[in-house]
Every structure is written in structure tokens, then in C-alpha cells.
Amino acid sequence: MDSVVSLELSNQGKNQRTYNFWLELLGNLRRNRSAVTGFIIIALLVVIAIFASVIATHDPLLPMFGLPGETPPLPRKAPCIHLLGCDVEEAQHLMGLDLNARDLFSRVIFGSRTSLVVGVFSVSFAITIGTLLGLIGGYAGGWIDNIIMRMMDVMLAFPSLLLAITIVTIRGPGLENALLAIAIVSIPQYARVTRSSVLKVKEEEFVTAERSLGAESWRIVFVHILPHALTPLIVQATLGIGGAVLEAAGLAFLGLGAQPPTPEWGFMLSEARAYIFTSPHLVFFPGIAITLTVLGFNLLGDGLRDALDPRLNRD
Amino acid sequence: MSTFALRRIAMTIPVLLGILIVTFVMLRLIPGDPCRAVLGERATDEVCDAYAERYGLNKPITEQLIIYLGRTLRGDLDVSFRFSRPVADLIVERLPTTLELAASALLFATLAGIPLGIISAYRHNSAIDVGTMMGANLGVSMPVFWLGLMLAFFFGVVLKDTPFALPPSGRLSAGANYAPFYAVWGIADSEATASSLLIFLSRLNILNSLLTLNITQLLDALRHMILPAMAVGTIPLAIIARMMRSSLLEVLRMDYVRTARAKGLSEYAVVLGHAVRNALLPVVTVIGLSFGALVSGAVLTETVFGLSGVGRILFDGISARDYTLVQGITIVTAISFVIINLIVDVLYGYLDPRIRLE
């Protein structure tokens, strides 16, 4: 009887603590201006990506040749907004037309899908492999840890963009390979973050207690140790998505990422870069889109880190 | 101190070896036949047999690895398929442009980043602080090539015909021809008789203009370097400013700073003399780590500004799928990265005795 009561009590206490933790985190985040700004940007971006087909005014892949209201010459035509005094007879294009006379606004809108997909998928891939490696290395210790971490050191010795370039050059250009390359080069960050959390809690009494109760290693690692690594991993992943979007844009700029006619911001910049002096609108808008996206994830990541770091709460 | 340096050097050897092994393994991961990936689809069987013979591709894998390691350590990085010349020669030839760009960018980042960080920390939560941190956030979020394009547009088009206009491409004005320092000094008459080291140094325009006291060349080279250096230097600048700020904020709260104030030292002496000196330590590491950002920045911006450096040939090599060139540049940069970090670490241990005693 006694033991049942105490078990219930301890469960209650545990639930309460978890509840408070998330509530406090949310409270901290709400008070953090950069986190709120970042969150709003990302939320907007997600909405735009989901409803791209509703928001876009045209088909992002369709050249505007021979359509009503389109007066030639069409390629690289400057923006035409009726509210800002553009001739009403003329077809409206919020960001103008690109090199192939496609509506730039619609392409920028659809580009959000590509960027989010690259960011989220490459980080998910990297975080899965990186966390596994970090858990194994940190928990096993000894030579296994040594081999894993030295491998990570070697990967970190390459500037990440160059390593990604090499991987994509080998595997051939394309969105999937760019995504894979970005994922591979960011594995070490997650492995390191996880490993340091594992090392911190591995010697704690609750782990020893669990082991003495006869729990299997995988159970200790995944059920008891992994949750302690989650918060730094969330911060790293949020910042990582921003980094991945930036790297994907760089690879696409070099012609290694998304291939035409996919609407992708980095590739749009690459196509338009020769026309910066004559048609700057082609370069403005995709660049602003990339910057805002990366800024959103960076702000949210920084805000999360501050909200999760108890040392900073006093400020 | 020397044991610390030696231990640190010993630790880099496995990493250097690892870099070479990773690049070796990558060569084997090329789908299909490495010969045709390197020499092109239309390479005949005889050519490929000769290639396999020459690079030992028909030998067992461990033997291949040893041959590869020996070859790379001797500085033989294979022949570029796109340029039909040894990759090592190409890199040495194009390096001065990239080196000058990276050094200018780093100088810009350090000279602007450290003062901005100091002011932000000292005037914590002031308008300058908030503005700098917002600028830093924006700086790390921008694609470097886009920033380059925007700078070229702003200074080359919008400010055209004003005194602030800057040339958006090239290293020197078109048609400009300046005497190399070895000719001025009378060491060698022409490029044909000069040693490769002299040619290398003379291609560093800013250095050459200083060595020949040629003000026209100096101003010309600097004017052309401002925009690319700003573009490439922005990310390191943002990182340095942030690091300087957070590090100084921490130091300013320490007791010894209060003591310094209590004994009546001027604010100038307290902040710049006492606090900044200690706060600079982590910034040194960050400056070393920004090498990666400088290299990626150079690769992505040299094309934008029409600079024919290592980044530019890498760009050309990528579009031609010139595998050996991409690999050669990757190896060289990774090794330089490791060596720079080694130097920074040793320097750090020298500056902060706590590190080397650990």
C-alpha cells in the first residue's frame, strides 16, 4: 500500500515538473522579442508555403508569351503594379517577369516550398544520424567514442560549403544530392551537442540506479539520457535550418542545387546575376526571401537558446 | 609551453591524415568509372588503361591509398581536366587574388567588429547595441553572393557619377599595368626570369604597390577591393562583433573590474586597458574559425566581382564537373584550415596560461 502511494506521489511530482518546464519555456519565449519575431516570420513562411497555389498569381512555370495584356518585350520586364500607377491595360506582375517571362512573384512564393523542404529534411536527416553517433560515442566511451569523434573532427576540418560542393560534384547536381550533402556536412554539430549532454548525465545517480535495476543499455540511452539532450538539440536544429537554407542557396547559385525549372531562390539569383545592372528586380526579391527565411530561423534559435539557458534568465 | 604546442601539433596529424583518407574514399564513390569521371565521358579504353596504370587504379585498395597519400603529400594534386594543367599550379597561380580578398575581408571584419562589439557591450541595451545586434543578425542571414550583388548594384549603379562610386568588378582598372616590385628593385627583369615566389608576391597587388611605393596602384587596388571585402567580411564581422560583445559583458561584471573602478582609474583605462584585454581571448578563436566563412565567401563572390581567384576556377571547375580540381582545392583549403586553427590554438595557449595547464 505504502509503495503504491509513494509511486503515485512521485509520478505527480514528475508531471508537475515537466508541465512547469514547458510553461516556463513558453513564458520565457513570449518575453523574448527576437524569438517572437522569428516565430512570426517562420509561421508566415509556412502559411505561404502551404497555400502557395492560392497566393501565387500565376503558374510559376508558365512563360507569359501571347497572353492578354502582356506587351512585349516580355523577358526581364520590370514589376507592374496597378496601384502604383502601372497602366491598367497592362497585366499586373508584382515582382515583374524573369528571364523566361515567368511571373517572378509566383516563383518567389513557390520557392518557399523548396527552401523549407531542404531546410527541414536535411536537418532531420543530420539530426537523426548525428544524435545516434553522439549517443553511442558518449555512452560507450573509450575507443568507440574516440573513433566517432575523430571522424567528426575530420569532417569539421573542411569548410562546410566546400565539403558539400565536393559531395554534390561526385554525386551529380540536383536538389536531392544538395539536400544530402548539406545533411552530411552538418552531422558533426549534432553529434557533438548530443555527446556533451550524454557525458553530463551519464554519471548521474538516476542512470546508475536504472543500471542497477537491470535496464538494458538501449533503454537507458533512449528513455533516460536522450531527453536531456533534447533542448540543446532543438536550439541547434532551429539554427541549423537557417544554415541549411543558406547553404542550399549557395549550392544552387553554383549550379549544384535545384535544377531548372524548379522555383528555387538561390538558382533564381544565379540565373539573374548577369542582369543585376539592367534588371535589378530579378536579384532583389529572391535575395530578400532567402534573408528573411534565414533571419527567422536564426532569431527563433537565438531566442530558444536564451529562454532555455537558466543563467541568462536573471538579466 | 613547448610541450603544449607539441601536443597540439601531434593532435592535428591524425586529422590531416583523416582529410586525405576522406578525399581518397570520395574518389572511390564516384558512380561508375573514376577514369571517365575525371577524363570525361569520351575517354577511350586505351586512355583509361593508361590512366589506371599511372595512378595505380588496378592495384589493391590499400596499395592505392598509400600511392595516393604519397602523391598528395608530394604536392601532386593531379591534372585538371577543364584546364589541362596540374591543379597545384592552378591554385598557386590564382591564390594571390583569393589571399588578398580573404585578408582584406578579415581586416575589415576585425577592425569594424571589435570596436562595434566593445561599444555594444559598454552601452549595453542602448540604441547602438540594439542596432549593432540587429545588423549582426541580418549580416549572418544574408547569402554572401547576394550581398555582393547588392553592393555592386548600389556602388556601381545607384552611386554612379558621385564621389562614392566604386568599381564593381576586377582587381585593377582596365588596361592598368603596374611594374612588379622585382623589376623596380632590379632582382629580375621580367616574369620569364623571376622565380615563382617573386611572381606570386608581385601578384598581391597591395603588397606590390607598397613595395614599389606606387600610390596610384595602391589606391586602384584598394578601391577595387572594398566591395568584395565588405561582402566576404560581413559574416565574420557579425560573428566577431557578437563574440566581442558577449565576452566583454561577462568580463565587465567581474570583481577585478570593480576593483579597478574603485581605485579611481579612468573609464578608458578600466574598459580598454583591463577588461578588453581579457575579453579579446575568445575573439581570437572566433577569428581563426572564420576562415571557413572566408573561403566559402570567396568561392561564392569572386564570380560576382569578376575576380579570377581560386574561388573562380572552382566555380568554372564545378560547371565542367572537373572532379580533380574541386578535390584539389578542397584538400588545400581543409589543410590550411587545420593549420590556421593549430596556430590560433597555440597562440591562445600562449595568451591564456590556464589553457595550456589544463
Concise structural overview:
The complex is a heterodimer of chains A (315) and B (358). Chain A is mainly α and 315 residues long. Chain A has helices at residues 2-31, 33-50, 52-55, 104-140, 142-156, 160-171, 175-202, 205-212, 217-253, 265-272, 281-308.
Terminal-residue CA separation of chain B: 12 Å
- The helix/strand order of chain A is HHHHHHHHHHH
Oligomer: heterodimer
Average pLDDT level of chain B: 86
Low-confidence stretches of chain A: 1-7
Low-confidence stretches of chain B: none
Percentage of residues assigned to helices of chain B: over 70%
Q: So how many helices of chain A? A: 11
What count of domains describes the coordinates of chain B?
Answer: 3
Helical coverage of chain A, percent range: over 70%
Largest interface: A-B, 45 and 50 residues
Radius of gyration of chain B, rounded? 24 Å
Distance linking N and C termini of chain A: 47 Å
Which CATH-level-2 architecture of the largest domain in chain B?
A: Orthogonal Bundle
**In total, how many beta strands of chain B?**
0
Q: By CATH's scheme, which homologous superfamily of the largest domain in chain B applies?
A: MetI-like
